[in-house]
């Protein structure tokens, strides 16, 4: 098991909470992906070598793809898919489900947090990631939900947090 002090986890919103939704070519999405890439590279420069990803649609998959891209030039990097339950991607659109399956297969480790879906399995997954890391990168818009829960839990656990705010227009 990788050392907590060299492990970084991620939290971020799903497409339903992102101002661009599923439109990943939107300039705001491209800008967020660049900020995620920069944050991962900075974490690498600080000595982080193990990255944990919750594998949810949206920001989690952006994070996963950027870690995999960095790993191409730095094979000592490991990526762990922290999956809340076996049916996580079952109801996703086919294209997103294929993306998820391809990304999970590319990860070095796969941790199934719960053997079946429960109302709390997503939070258990989030706590697992925080409990096994010392840095949290967060793409967050300030709203209530799983990303806020994960950030608050990480604060209570004393993790360093790199906040990548998502600005929602009209606020």
Which terms summarize this structure?
Rossmann fold; 5 helices; globular; 6 strands; 171 residues; six-stranded parallel beta sheet; single chain; alpha/beta
Question: How far apart are the termini?
Answer: 43 Å
Count of beta strands:
6
- Beta-strand proportion: 15-25%
Query: Which regions are unreliable across 5 or more consecutive residues at pLDDT < 50?
Result: none
Please describe what this structure looks like:
The chain has 171 residues and is α/β, with parallel strands linked by helices. The protein has one domain (4-165): Rossmann fold. The protein contains 5 helices and 6 strands, in the order E-H-E-H-E-H-E-H-E-H-E. It has helices at 27-45, 59-73, 94-106, 121-131, 146-156, and strands spanning 7-12, 50-53, 78-83, 109-112, 135-140, 160-165. The chain has a 6-stranded parallel sheet with strand order 4-3-2-1-5-6, sandwiched between helices. Strand 5 (135-140), helix 5 and strand 6 form a beta-alpha-beta unit. Helix 1 packs across helix 2 (59-73) and helix 4 packs parallel to helix 5. 36% of the residues are buried. The model has no long low-confidence stretch (mean pLDDT 95).
Please specify the SSE layout and strand pairing.
Elements: E1 7-12, H1 27-45, E2 50-53, H2 59-73, E3 78-83, H3 94-106, E4 109-112, H4 121-131, E5 135-140, H5 146-156, E6 160-165
Parallel strand pairs: 1-2, 1-5, 2-3, 3-4, 5-6
Helix pairs in contact: 1-2, 2-3, 4-5
Short structural summary:
With 171 residues, this protein is of the alpha/beta class. Helices cover 40% and strands 19% of the residues.
């Amino acid at each position: 098991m990788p050392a907590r002090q060299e492990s970084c986890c991620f939290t971020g919103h799903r497409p339903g909470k992102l101002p661009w939704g599923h439109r990943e070519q939107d300039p705001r999405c491209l800008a967020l992906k660049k900020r995620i890439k920069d944050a991962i590279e900075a974490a690498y420069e600080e000595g982080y070598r193990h990255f944990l990803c919750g594998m949810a649609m949206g920001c989690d998959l952006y994070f996963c793809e950027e870690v995999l891209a960095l790993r191409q030039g730095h094979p000592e990097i490991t990526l762990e898919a922290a999956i809340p339950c076996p049916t996580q991607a079952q109801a996703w659109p086919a294209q997103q489900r294929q993306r998820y399956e391809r990304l999970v297969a590319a990860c070095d480790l796969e941790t199934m947090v719960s053997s079946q879906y429960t109302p709390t399995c997503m939070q258990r997954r989030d706590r697992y990631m925080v409990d096994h890391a010392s840095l949290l990168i967060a793409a967050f818009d300030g709203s209530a939900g799983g990303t806020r829960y994960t950030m608050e839990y990480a604060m209570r656990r004393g993790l360093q947090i790199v906040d990548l705010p998502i600005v929602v227009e009209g606020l």
